[in-house]
Amino acid sequence: MNIFLIEDNLVMQELLIEYLQNYGYSVEAFDDPILALEKLKNKNSCDLVILDLMLPKMDGFDVCKQIRAQSNIPIIISSARDNLGDKVVAFEHGADDYLAKPYEPKELLIRMDAIFRRVNGRTGVQKIGIFEIDDNKMQIIQDGHPLELTKIEYEILSLLLRHPNQVFSRSLISQHLNQELKDRAIDMHISNIRAKLFDDIKTPMFIKSIWGVGYKFIG
Amino acid sequence: MNIFLIEDNLVMQELLIEYLQNYGYSVEAFDDPILALEKLKNKNSCDLVILDLMLPKMDGFDVCKQIRAQSNIPIIISSARDNLGDKVVAFEHGADDYLAKPYEPKELLIRMDAIFRRVNGRTGVQKIGIFEIDDNKMQIIQDGHPLELTKIEYEILSLLLRHPNQVFSRSLISQHLNQELKDRAIDMHISNIRAKLFDDIKTPMFIKSIWGVGYKFIG
DNA sequence: TTTAAAATGTAAATTTTTTGTAAAGATTTG
DNA sequence: CAAATCTTTACAAAAAATTTACATTTTAAA
Questions:
Q1: Does A41 lie at the interface with B, CB-CB under 8 angstroms?
Q2: Rounded CA gap, B49 and B56, in Å?
Q3: How near does any CA of chain B get to the CA of A7, in Å?
Q4: Residue of B96, B104, B211 lying closest to A150 (CB–CB)
Q5: Is the whole-model pTM more than 0.70?
Q6: Which residue ranges form the domains of chain A, and what is each CATH number?
Q7: How far apart are CA A49 and CA B216, in angstroms?
Q8: Which of A107, A216, B76, B109 is 20–30 Å from B46 (CA)?
Q9: Segment A84-94, tens digit of pLDDT
Q10: Beta carbon of B205 within 7 Å of strand C?
């Protein structure tokens, strides 16, 4: 998850960066909104913007408006001003939430989570090692690269990913997918999945065969 | 717009009902959460729940959980307790926002609007890539050119557009449109929409088929 | 260590399922 | 009832799933 932080108070910036990074987010921070907007235009790897209203050069509301003009990225306003007027304007400009300073970082975090739940659907995205499972998009991302999986491949891989190190017999896989698959058909699917993961059979990084039993994901 | 208000303080209830009705919402109020949950189960005409945490008979969080177990209706928690712990728990139970009493009714209103924008897509004209959805005119514009869509086509396309990359099964589309469509009927609509978008089946720019599952809009 | 049976890996062929859509039929709307 | 919209049908095409066949690996018995 990649967060854009637009905040010119460097103490506050430092604090938030460290806090968010602690929770596994990668943060790109800006004190100059013009620069941030430039970067946003080129990047599409931004999942959320945290935006301070008091900025040099540009009004925070205008930043909000400009972001909203080009994308639907969720925006959380973080402002020292705690009055209804500003909140009204912020929401009108397409902000997704409004936090009045001072706030506890934890509150930012839970509101971020709430937004991600809404954006990604309630189930959210599950992260397992270098993999991310997105149920709504029916997609698995390996190290940032989305995999092109068929339906069954997606189901088998997400099953294994969600239970790292657990050995699945072929019949157990069959059961979990709610359909009757012949053993060799499963082998074929595993083979195809491995190819897509660029997994090396000799020294597998991801899916290991358990001889005489089945397969497991190495967690 | 139909609002469920679950609040046992009758003064507060009265106040909110009048306020919300003034702004064109129809409100059903309950002081008994059990009754409210019953009603919710049968009705599907509820667009949002405003939920007080201090209730008789049942814990507000449990109400939240039960609502969330059966539907995705947005929930705003309205609570006299203003501490992080409660906020954390509320969001974890699937709440969409948290307002600490006392709050100005106006603030409730703008947060409701923010939620509706997120859930229904932004009001007025929503821009998604080269598309614009105009809810009022019931029209979708592609790259400046208004599309001539039938009612169902409009509904399906705007559903897909508003959730880019999310895979919709045919039954999910059916559910969202609130009518029972046969799978092949949906296929037909998709086919007709594609023709109007001049989308190329071989290398689709807009609507991608997810084999064995359904369709998604490429965002 | 050798060896044969059992299990696995996978390319290629085959079968099955799903999808695309034209055209016909049914339903709704003005 | 005519026109527009929606649904069903039917068949071709595409994609995925499975089977086959053979190479390779593993295991355990000789």
A1: no
A2: 17
A3: 23
A4: B211
A5: no
A6: 2-120 (3.40.50.2300), 125-217 (1.10.10.10)
A7: 26
A8: A107
A9: 888 888 888 88
A10: no
